[in-house]
Amino acid sequence: MNDELDCKAISRLISDGQDRDLPPAERARMRLHFVICETCRDVNDQFSFLREAMKRLSRNEPPSE
């Protein structure tokens, strides 16, 4: 894997990271990319929000704001 990851590769890692633990090197590269890319940070935040909302819905809890 390249040391630099483009946004397309990062979006795949974000998605993969929702389903499994990423290896430390991939996690570090992704976090480094987040430092320079607000769009990917926002995508990651949105994925995290949706994942948490789905968990709450499955437990019949109200969504947090």
What would you note in describing this structure?
- With 65 residues, this protein is mainly alpha-helical.
- The chain contains three helices and no strands.
- Helix 2 packs across helix 3.
Protein topology:
Layout: H1 7-19, H2 24-36, H3 38-58
Helix pairs in contact: 1-2, 1-3, 2-3
Number of helices: 3
Largest sheet, in brief, is:
none
What level of helicity do the residues show?
over 70%
Number of strands: 0
Average pLDDT over all residues: 87
Structural class: mainly alpha
Are there runs of 5+ residues with pLDDT below 50, and where? none
CA(first)-CA(last) distance: 37 Å
Shape: elongated
Strand content: under 5%
Give the H and E element order.
HHH
Radius of gyration: 13 Å
List keywords for this structure.
65 residues; 72% helix
Short description:
With 65 residues, this protein is mostly helical. Helices cover 72% and strands 0% of the residues.
